[in-house]
Structure formats: structure tokens, C-alpha cells
Amino acid sequence: MDKKRRARPEYSRLFGKAAGILVYIFMALPIIVIIFSAFSPSNFPEFPPTGFSLKWFVVIFTKKAWLKAIRNSLILLVLVTPITTILGTLASYSLHRLRFKGSELLQSFMLSPLMIPQIVLGIALLYLFSNVGWTGTYGALIISQVLIAFPYVVRSVNACMASLDPVLESASMSLGANNITTFRRITLPLIRPGIIAGAVFAAVTSFGEVSISLFLSSPTTMPVSVRVFNYIEQTFDPAVTAVSVIFVILSIVVLFIVDRTIGLSKAM
Amino acid sequence: MKSKRAFNWVLLTPVLIFLLLFLILPIVLLLVISFQNQNTYLQLEPGYTLSRYVGILTQWKYLKDILVTVGVALLTTAIALVLAYPAAYLLTCAPSKSVRSLLYVLLVSPLLTSVVVRTFAWIVLLSQNGILNQILEKLGLIQHPLSMLWNMNAVILAYVQVMLPFAVMPIATCMGEISPSLQRVSMSLGAGRIRSFFKITLPLTIPGMASGGIIVFALTAGSYITPLLVGGGMQPLLPLMIYQQAMQVSDIRLASALSIVLLVIVFIFILPVEALLKRWEVKVYG
What is one GO biological process annotated to this record (chain A) (predicted)? Predict the structure, then answer.
């Protein structure tokens, strides 16, 4: 309605939109490039692509080392996601209900793994785990990935907790339900969107994390993200683009799930 | 109600134990070993020393790294915020739900693909036989491929692309909360579109810019993957120096001291902004 009424061309508005579109192109550009070169038959990325081939995908799915790295990543993802989701939900829920002096500070502290430079966390965890002989184990990788993904879960559950009316819980308890029943029957269903979004972020963080896993993984536990890093550092080979396409497809599937379950704009 | 409070503490305890063991403890250990004495073979000796910190804060090779790291992080943050603004604007004024969803996918998909993948894409684009050089050659603009990788410009370019979504999302959230009538009021009172932007929209999105800026700055200052891959590992950046000391020289104590310095630097920049942000929120929302 509003738009029709104004006949005068709105140059500033138009300029803002054009600039916005350029920025989105800039953000999407690398991904587009990756997808094109993964399906290219030549030995280095070409533009425009000279043909279509799946040979780099064949390389990935027939080389033992890549398969093993993918398996390692999946093992980590399956363990890291539930642990992080449970810890993050517990943290957000209990901290929202417990108001005390310094609870604000504790809240900031819980989100701090986002702010601490990843190289610092990497070195610190490397030293800790090498002292107890855990470097190179799945345990060390799981713990560090949980630590990195934890703030994302806290943040997305916080968003739901903020709009949760505590009266609902009091009502449930005054009707005779105990703490656990109330949490399960009242609270949990109401904060479910936040938990799902948090779990998605945790899974994605686990799958893509490289800065800390690089310090802590051994050749037998190396996840696919670290293997991609090692590979790029040594060679320039389109096989990596095929792995990257797997990453991209996974993320699109995830986005689709989030969009269908709770809506994208709500989750972020 | 007392049992409820106890119940909440029970829920919180495992979280606190986890963070104590794997966040606080490792950083405290890092601080401790950064003061430990060692001999020339990097073996532990009794006693503590300040010499590492004195060295870092007086020798040019470290100071330069510190200055460049801060400069690059500030520059990346500034560019990311400027670019994030029109992107956030486009997102909030998207005409339909499907366009908005598409923009969200474009926005979030970089976050969901590993930083190695995103950085690798820049190698594909910028390398000697990369796509940008091929296009320029076909257009006849250049005779020989340009060397666009392995320098700081490439690092900053990749940083901005990698960090942009973190800047766009909080700004878009802020913008979405501005009532459109505010701008209409401002314009009906005689202010032009540009003037209303600077008087209404910009001030109201400052919290979003601040929280986006904090994350971009912290992530940039602490990232070593991108400069290692795109910058060739030779750029004078603190995270790279830490990586090399820990992984190649195996001087974990110097790496710790440098890490502590980096941590302190990041907090020096972030904490004041965060404090201002909190005060702003209290002022606006009570």
C-alpha cells in the first residue's frame, strides 16, 4: 500500500537494496564456486566449467582415508550434539529460574567460549589433555567441541526462555506435579524450538570445527574438517571441493529441517 | 518454592563442573606455565619468570604482530559492519516470505559450512590458475596471471566473507524491531529519507552493530586457519605466531604467554563495548 502511494523514485532506498544484493552475492560467491568446480572434470577449477563429471566424488568415496575421516566426524557429531544440547538447555533453564547476585555475570561467562580466541582455547586444551594423556582421543575432541558449541545452545534456548511465563510452571506445581513432571510436561514442550535450533547449531559446529580439533586429533581420530585443512595446506586438488559440496548439501538439508520445524527467522 | 530452587541448582551443577574443568582450569594452567622457567632446550626449570612477557612487550617482532592483529581485526570489523548494513536492510524489507527465506539461507549457509571450506573457496577464486585470473585473462585485461593470494588483502577479504553473517544477524534483528511508523513520523515532520536514516534508523541499530562487532572482532583476532591457508602462514599475526610456537617450535610456554596476551587484548577491546551495550539496554528497555 505504502509503496504505491509514493510516486517519486526513491534513489536512496534503491541504492540500499542494490548494495544489499551485491553483499549477498559476495557471501554466496565462494559456495557457488565450490559447487561448480566439484563437478568439473579438469584437474583445476575452471570457469566457465568445461564439462560435468562425478569423478571427484568417486575419489572421495573410494579412498579409505577420506571415508575414515567422514566416519570420525559422524561419530563425534552423534555424541557431541546430545551432550551439548542437554548441558546448554540445563544451563539456560536453571539460570533463568535462579536469580541471584552475579547470575548476569554467570550468564556472560557461559557465553564466553564464543569470545575467547579459538587459538587460545586450542592451546589451553592441548596442554591440559597432553598432561593427562588424552590428546588424540575421541574424548578430548568431544569435550572441546561441546565447549565450543555450548554457547550456541544456551543462546537459542535463552531466546525461548525469555518468553516463557513462570506462572505456567507455578500452576502445574500447585496442581500437585513435582519438579521433574513440570519440566517434562510444561517447560520442555514450550522451549522445544530453542532446543531444536540449539541442537542444529551444535551438530553443525561439531562437523565444521577445525581450529581446536586440529590440535587435539590424531591420524586415527582425525575428523573430516581437519583432514580437509591438512589436504589444502599441502595440495591443490579438486577432491577437496567434492568434500566441500558434501558440507554444503548437509547444511542445506539442515536449513530445510529448521525451516520446516520452527521457521528460519525464529531459529537464528 | 525452596525445593524448586534446590532443583535448579542441581540442574546447574553439571554445567558448572564442566566449565570449571574444561574452560577455567585450562586457561589457569596456561597462565601458570607462561611464567615457568625453562632452559634453552625448552625443558622445565624450577622457578618463575616474567621474562617472556617482558620480551613480548619490548621486542618489535612481537609488538608488530600485536599491532597488525589488532589493526586487521578492527579493519575487518569495520568493513563487515558497513557491508552488513545493506544486507540487513534487504532482509528486513523482503517483500515475501519466500524471498526472506532465500536470503536467510544465503546468510546462514556460510555459517553452516566449515571455515576451511569457505577459505578454500577463496583459494579457488584467487590463485594463479584460479577463476578470477582466468576471467581477467579472457577479457584481455591482463597478460599474465596476477598473484592475488598469500598477502594480507586476501586474508582480509576472506575474513570479511567468513565473518559477515555474524554482523548481519544482530543488525537485522534490531532493524526488524524498529516500528516503520517512526520513519514515517520523521519524514512527515519534514526530515528527508537520508536524514531520517541517520537520526532514527542508525541510532536504533547501534546495539545490533555493537554485538555483531564484538563477535566479528573476537573471531578475527583469534583465527589462524584463514591466514594460514589464504595468507600462506607468513603474515605477521599473533594467532599464527602462537600456532607456530606451539606446533613447529614446540615452545608451549612462549605459546602460552602469547595466548594470554592475545586473550587480554581481545578483552580490552570487547569488555568496554559490552559494558556500554548493557547500559544502553538498561536505558532503553528498563
Answer: transmembrane transport
How large is the ipTM?
0.88
**Nearest-CA distance from B107 to chain A in Å?**
7
Tell me which chain B residue has its CA closest to the CA of residue A260: B101
Q: What's the CATH number for A55-267?
A: 1.10.3720.10
What mean pLDDT value characterizes chain A? 84
Rounded to an integer, what is the distance from CA B224 to the centroid of its chain? 11
CATH 1.10.10.410 fits B59-285, yes or no: no
The reply to whether B181 touches chain A by the CB within 8 Å rule is no
Q: A118: Cβ–Cβ under 8 A, 6 or more apart, which residues?
A: A148, A211, A212, B219, B222, B223, B224
Indicate the pLDDT class of residue A4, thresholds 50, 70 and 90.
Answer: very low
Nearest CA in chain B to A2: B184
Report pLDDT for A3: 46
pTM of the shown model: 0.89
Domain ranges, ordered by start, for chain B: 1-49, 59-285
Q: Residues 59 to 78 of B: which have CB under 8 A from any A CB?
A: none
